[in-house]
Every structure is written in structure tokens, then in C-alpha cells.
Amino acid sequence: MKSTLELQEQLRTASFALPAALFMAATFALPLAAVAWQSFLSADGAHLSGFAYGKMLSTPLFFLVTATTLQISFGAMCFSLLLAYPTAYFLSRQPPRRRAFLMVFVLVPFWTSILVKSFAFTILLGQSGVVNQLLAAVGLGPIKLLFNRFGVMVGMSHFLVPFMIFPILTSLLKQPPELAKAAAIMGAGKFRIFWKVTLPLSVPGVTAGCLLVFILSLGFYVVPALLGGRKDMMLANLVDFYTREAMVWPVASAIAVVLTTVAVAAALALSRVPGGSSLLAGEDD
After folding, report:
1. In terms of CB atoms within 10 Å, which of 120, 194, 235, 248 comes out highest?
2. pLDDT digits (tens, 9 = 90+) for 138-162
3. Which residues pair with 14 in a beta bridge?
């Protein structure tokens, strides 16, 4: 009797998620299945074929763009970590009310369109932009800061830093303050406490943040298109090329399937990191 009531309660609870599940199935799962199906069609779409994957694997451009995507994603991950860790450490040392106020500035990038921010960077980093004017004032400019790898890194890191800050900050806040106090009583200095206690205990948050940022970086399209050069094409831009210019949709679909597979593999790795599963689920453990 009890198990029947529990089953009814579970079904009633699951019914609340049914509209969202149907919506995701209609707007995400079905289109994704259609893309996967199209990747196995022939060039004219008349019959099933391995044409798209054969074409993709025989094209040097695919391997070149894949290598570029991995390089940019790894670089953006490292650059974001360098910016995010000191910020998260500073926020973790603030009183709760001040930390809540300062978090507003971390969240500002979420409230601005990535397209608008990319155009703003063209004004800041352009040949006659504010940064180059300041560099010229001290005799160092102008320097080419746009339409190259540097511009892509700046644009992507500006968007990705908050995604790195959140898991690191959560990891730092979960550390018992008694550990640092005990180390201080034992005679350890501030740097030694950070190096031997704080940093090792924050590794799960750093790992989760790195994987999350790397997954997000793989699918970037707007920033490389607007701030990068010809050598900074990423896989999402290659999908766009085969869709709108080459008009070979099966190849574009095959590349999209590969990109999705890599992202799913990275997400599975993230779920195995301590705290990673709750991060994917949007929980604050």
C-alpha cells in the first residue's frame, strides 16, 4: 500500500516536468535527431550513405579547424582560470552582504548580448580604439588587437569568466575556516596556508569550472566570426560554411554530430568530477 502511494506521488511529481520535457523533445531532441539522420544521407539527400563522414575525414580543412577549436577552447579555459581564481578568492573573503553586491558585477556579462559585447570590443581594441590610444601615449602602439587569436581570447574569456567563478567560489566557501586557523596556529604564513590548504581543497571546483568552460568554448560562433582572423575558424563556423556557402548540408550535419559528441563526452567527464553533477543540475551543494 505504501509503495503504491509512493509511486503515485512520484508520478504526480513527474507530471510537473512533463511540459518542459515535451518542449525540450520538440525543440532540441527532434532537431538533433534530424541532424544526425541527415549526416548519413548522400550528397543529393536521396539515399543513406557514408558520404558526409568520408568527405569530412578526407578534408584537411576539418582537421585544421578541429585543431584550432581545441587550441582556442583550451586557451580560453586557461585565460578564464587566471582571471577567475583571484576574483573567486577575493569574493570568498568578503562578508555575505558585500559579496552579494559584488556578485552583481560578475553577473553583468550575462545581461548583455554577446553580439553587442563583440561590437563593443571592436571599439575598445580597434586600431584607433581606446586601448591603442593609451598604448600610443606611452610610445607602445598601435598594436593589432583585433581579427587575430588575441581578440578571440579576450572576447571569449569576457563571456566565460563567470562560468569559471561560480564553481571555484562554491568550492572556496565550502572550506571549513577552522582549517586555515589551525594552520595559522601551527605557524604557517598566509602564502603557505593558501598553497597547502586552500588551493588543494579548491581543486574540485577548478576542475569543474575548467570542464564547464571548455564545453561552452567548443560551440562558440559569434566571437571568432567577429573578432578573429581567417586562421581562427572554429567548428561552429565550419558548420556555417558548409550550410550557407558550400551548401553541403550532410557534411555540415556530420561536423555538428562530431561537435555534439565531443561536448557530451566532456559533460560526462564533468559529471564524474566532485561537485560537477550538481553543477550540471544547477544545484548549490
Report:
1. 235
2. 887 678 888 899 999 999 998 999 9
3. none
